[in-house]
Amino acid sequence: MADSHHNPNASHSARSFEVRILRQDGPGQPSYWERHRVEYEPEMNVISVLQRIAAKAITADGKHVAPVAWDCNCLEEVCGACTMVINGQVRQSCSALVDRLLEDRPGEIELAPMAKFPVVRDLVVDRARLFRALTKVKAWVPVDGYYDVGPGPRVSPATQEQSYPLSECMSCGCCLDACPQYLKVEVERLEGESAADFEARANNEFDRSFVGAHAISQAMLFNSHPTGATSAGPRLDALMAEGGIQVCGNAQNCVAVCPKNIPLTTSIGRAGRATTIHQLKKWFGA
Amino acid sequence: MATKRVLIVGGGLAGLAATMKLAELGIDVDLMSLVPVKRSHSVCAQGGINSVNDLTRQQGDDEWLHFDDTVYGGDFLQHQPPVKEMAYWGPKIIDLMDRLGVTFNRTPEGMLDRRRFGGTLFKRTAFAGATTGQQLLYALDEQVRRWEAAGKVKKYEYWDFLGPILDDNGICRGAVAQDLVSMEIRSFPADAVVVGSGGPGLIYGRSTMSMACTGSAASRCFQSGGKYSNGEFIQVHPTAIPGADKLRLMSESARGEGGRVWVPRTPQDPREAVTIPEGERFYFLEDRYPKYKNLVPRDIATREIFDICVNEGLSVEKDRQCVYLDLTHIPRQELDRKLGGILGIYEKFQGVDPRTTPMKIFPAVHYSMGGLWVDYERSSTGGLVVGSPKNHITNVPNLYAIGECDYQYHGANRLGANSLLSCIFSGLIVAPGLENLLKGAKQAAAELPSSLFERSRKQHQSRHDALLKRSGGGENPYLIHQELGDVMTKVATVVRRNDQLQEALGKVSDLYARAKKCSLSDTGTWTNQNVVFTKALLDMFPLALTILKGALQRDECRGAHFKPDFAFGSLTATEPAERRRQAEAWCDRFEANNAKWLKSTVAQWTGDEVEITYEEVDTSLIPPRPRLYGLVGADDIEKVWNQRSAARETAQNGNGSTAPAKLAGAH
Amino acid sequence: MKSAVGDAPASSFLARNEFLIRRLHSLSGLIPVGAYMVIHLLTNASVLQGSVMFQKLVYQIHGLPMLVAIEWLFIFIPILFHAIIGVLIIRGSLPNSGTYKYGSNYRYTLQRATGMIAFVFIMVHVFHMHGWFHFDSWLIAARKIGGAQFWPYNAASTAARALSSLPYQIFYVVGVLSCVFHLANGIWTFGITWGIWVTPQAQRWATTACLVFGLALSAVGLGALGGFAYTVDVETAYERENEMYDERVKIGDILPDEHKRYHPPAAKASETAQAPTYLNFEP
Predict the structure, then answer these.
(1) Residue A3 falls within a domain, yes or no?
(2) How far is Cα C279 from Cα C144, in angstroms, rounded to an integer?
(3) How far apart are CA A232 and CA B241, in angstroms?
(4) Which end of chain B is more exposed for a tag (fewer CB within 10 A), N or C?
(5) Which chains neighbour B (Cβ–Cβ under 8 Å, 3 or more pairs)?
(6) Rounded distance, CA B362 to CA A128, Å?
């Protein structure tokens, strides 16, 4: 069996490879490419590459630099933190294996921050807007409270099988980064502005921009839950407000890049149908 | 009067459950986390969550048995009232999570489906695919988001808890924390601080834990005077996928479906695994345990794999310890049907197809049973007094600990699918206690003199500034972390020897001294991950020393703590009378050992070292009994033990209706 | 994004009604614009059955009462609405099919490209053939720069003449194919937008159906173009059309309307004439 691990190809036997990283020192600062050389080790992923770079903090030209900043946590592709653009494609860096990347593009790996979110520093981006969208569509089950009042509603296995994939969404933002309709919104804090005022202003800005596939899908998840459905109307209203589902351009990149294979475009179709009916009901009072 | 607030540190299952419940009780909450709470380590839990349910009840199960399984699995090292309360809350917690919309797997009729987990005979475990922890966390995250939208909860994500603020009377009045983006350090006045910051896996370098599991929050409480208990009890999972960055769990079902564990007889045989002939392979588990073969209990498998690599030098690779877990003899179709999901994980992260190439696996640090010492208030029925402010309080007034970072529920060893339960339970039970604590407080923390908060803030600010001002050329924090991880993994995981532990204590102390001389490669004041990591690294040492010292002093085998020098042997005699005598001696030794060691380790930090005392364990509900799994002579020991128990009962009250002391199930 | 908290700008009319406007945009693309386009291309393709057949159909259309009102209400205004909103939509997008090379993403980019081409094409095409407005001073000016080249009562011959040059033929091929793609793909996105095809299987089926539709309509469109450019003999057709006109006027089927008839320039022979006046009436 041809196994890249045991038969390293030519680029691997070079024993080191180059990592080009698009760095940025802070919001509003210019970005710049920086080259690092990393010794090849078997079974590396992009996280371990970044760990080596952080430990060394010396560029390929021998310059001492601040370690590259990046976000990560679980390293098992379930937390969504370490999302970045690797060789041009948005994905998690924990599941981006160096051997595979070097097969596709020998000798070099290119890392850049997500394109649709404001850069905090280097590969760290601010995904507050992504979470704000979950608030906008009321992505929760509006239970009465947390006292013990017996079991939840019965759910058929068929419904569970439809809901489970949607509930695997880890809010990583791949669907948004690849979406041609999802444009970057960067809100800068003003001189002397309080944190609360800034947050309120940013949220207002976010609420007017496209909610994105993940939030549409979450709205459909909760609308299909027996208790969640009690807020179905307000959720659909949110999807029909400014920045709602109508902004979707059906490029369907979301479903193609989703690391969890969530049927996002099915959710979008369902939301399209639901909002159509919701609008007619609102007009004709059915 | 200013509004009273609770500060929760950590947004995993425990922290979110507490936040949600407090908000419902009308209490304002500040929720602080290193990562966006939805990315907390709880998402990594796969298997499920245990509770008694209507089905198991009709098979003879009840809450008491769940309680019994939990303390038996934990080798009786946990105080029993909180565990009992947890077991009785179990079904209610599942109902609650069900109502919150967790996508649990369903039976055809639409009921919650259950699976069976280790350490029990009942199908108690509710699950949502292979991502139960993720699903539970999301449900709580959603509820907290709902309260956040309602203005009851304020989140501080990407904030690092630097330590509690204690007033002159040693009462916790809030915390100091740092914004990981702007690096701003500020104090948060709070009428109670609840730490739910998870386990300290990073002390071991690589583990199955997430990168945020540095243990730093718990360590900072420890260094501020909080007690830390049972630190030496670290659960090691037998099969994980070694990675350059992390050790990822490989489910035990791989062995359950026929996976064989082996190493080449030639150390580090350079040939491809599949080309090595049968005769040159060493199926060491099958060889040493002809009865159970590859399905020996978890702790035995862990020890054997560890031993073959570390002590016998038969690791598959030279630079890295691992053995083969081989499924290649099983037809591909069968593998896909039964193990598709977990094989997919291996393939995704290793880039190798485990259907055609044997997997490389090694045990990995997985969970910390120990943690911050916390109190509880025992009810008349042997459970907890719900609403008591004593529940989950540390020895520092107004400072609480919940979830994996407290020590309360799992004793010496955790049962599978019990951690999700204990995390949610501890979050829910702490809330009504805090409600009463806040009701009883005369003054809100926010009204205390600002000098108190400013003083603490300044201390942390100057520590931070001093780190940034360090001159270059010092130690590299990342390399020190690697060394610390190597030492800890070598001596304080599966097999523990006093000489090694003693030596490691010296090494780790040296490393600590070197770590204090770290210099930073980033001295910036914006999203400086370098300085944050260095601080977390420094705070790993007090806990690392606690683990080592606790392990060194505890001269026995209990749960996850295994010292071969103190292991009880099997019965060797064949002649019945002699065998009986050996069994009696075995039981005598067991009782003597319990008298000496059935105690919680309680560590305190003196400023530069660890001081350990021991505390009696409340075993009043279920008397301790031996675990005899796989031991030669188990039947004879059991016989002796049961006779003794019966005699004790008769002597005590003449009727046998009290707690079952018999060996109900020697798993 | 630099606004202060106090004066967060109130949402504009477009923003507040974004959902309805986008839905109307989606609908208008299909009905009436798309539907009209299908009829238009089918009518044009009738030229393949001869200039008489085509002329008959044109008479039918021009027999409609209040034709100008119908044109503006059901054709021009919907097209302009669809086009202007379309431009706004395109301004809010960032096509990335160079990076994410998926079929649906290529179609997304093409939908926007063909939309822009179609916009330009239709503007020019309506001017080129129809002239947009039918008052004399405008028509005189328009015809001076090559507009309003279609005379309904000399339908095939004037259309054929207008399409006789190769640059125009290329322009029309590109324009028509863009319109066809835009409509066919637009039907596919319409189905998702309105929740008609939801599941991946349904969407795959719809993709095939839209592909077949698009290919068929392309054939019709190209057939029409080819028909005008290469099958119509302008002189013969012109004569036949005039005969038809006379007959219809005679039996009272239509009222005489010289505005809709083409008259060759009076001084056709005179190459030295200052400027051809296309708006010449019979003495």
Answers:
(1) no
(2) 10
(3) 43
(4) N
(5) A
(6) 38
Q: Strand B260-264's sheet: what is its strand order?
A: B248-249, B234-241, B359-368, B323-326, B260-264, B281-282
Q: Which of residues 103-122 of C touch A (CB under 8 A)?
A: 104-105, 107-109, 111
In eight-state DSSP terms, residue C127 is I
Q: How far A192 CA sits from the closest chain B CA (Å)? A: 15
* Residue A138 shares a structural domain with residue A279: yes
Residue B420: strand, helix, or coil: helix
At residue A221, φ and ψ (nearest 5 deg) are: -60, -50
Range of A224's domain? 127-284
Q: Which residue has the tokens 């509710």?
A: B126
If one counts the domains in chain A, the total is 2
Q: Which DSSP symbol is given to A68?
A: P
Alpha-carbon span A77 to A72, nearest angstrom: 10
From B249's Cα to the closest Cα of chain A, the distance in A is 9
User: Is there a catalytic annotation at residue B106?
Assistant: no
For B479, name the nearest residue in chain A, comparing CA atoms only: A55
- If you write DSSP's letter for every residue of B167-218 in order, what string do you get? -TTS-EEEEEEEETTT--EEEEE-SEEEE-----GGGGSS-SS-TT---HHH
Same domain, A173 and A241: yes
Residues forming beta bridges with residue B157, ordered by sequence position? B33
Determine contact: A167 vs chain C, CB below 8 A: no
Q: Return d(Cα B402, Cα B25) in angstroms, integer.
A: 18
**CATH architecture of the domain formed by C14-260:** Up-down Bundle (1.20)
A63 → chain B, closest CA residue: B521
Record the tokens describing residue B289, joined without a space: 């345990």
d(CA C116, CA C11): 27
Whole-number Å distance between alpha carbons of B64 and C239: 104
> Cis before residue C32, ω within 30 degrees of 0?
yes
- C99–A241 C-beta distance less than 8 A: no
For chain B (667 residues), the mean pLDDT of every run of 10, in chain order, is 92 98 98 98 90 94 96 95 98 98 94 81 87 96 98 98 97 98 97 98 96 97 98 94 89 81 95 94 90 77 89 89 94 81 84 93 96 98 97 98 98 91 98 97 94 97 94 89 95 94 98 94 93 97 98 96 92 92 95 97 96 97 87 88 91 56 43
- By Cβ distance, the residue of A208, A249, A272 closest to C195 is A272
3 state DSSP class of B429: helix
DSSP for residue B526: S
Option in C104, C188, C192 nearest A272 (CB): C192
Residues of A in contact with B149 (CB under 8 A): 135, 138
CA distance B46 to B420: 10
Mapping DSSP onto H, E and C, the string for A157-201 reads HHHHHHHHHHHCCCCCCHHHHCCCCCCCCCCCCCCCCCHHHHHHH
Going A264 to A265 to A271 to A274, the CA torsion angle's sign is: negative
For residue A2, is it within any domain? no
The Cα A160–Cα A224 span in angstroms is 10
- Tokens 């080449």, located at residue: B264
Q: What is the pLDDT of residues A184-225, one digit of tens each?
A: 999 999 999 999 999 999 999 999 999 999 999 999 999 999
What CA–CA distance (Å, rounded) separates B512 from B309?
Answer: 28
What is the set of domains in chain B, with CATH numbers? 5-34+60-91+149-233+369-455 (3.50.50.60), 237-364 (3.90.700.10), 470-553 (1.20.58.100), 572-653 (no CATH)
Q: Do C189 and A272 touch (CB under 8 A)?
A: no
Q: What is the CATH number of the domain that holds A49?
A: 3.10.20.30
Picking from B10, B323, B310, the residue whose alpha carbon sits closest to that of residue B157 is B10
Task: Please list every residue in chain B whose beta carbon sits closer than 8 Å to the beta carbon of residue A154.
Answer: 109-111
Q: Which of B114, B206, B281, B298 is catalytic?
A: B298
Interface C:B, ≥3 CB–CB pairs < 8 Å? no
Please report whether residue A4 resides in a domain: no
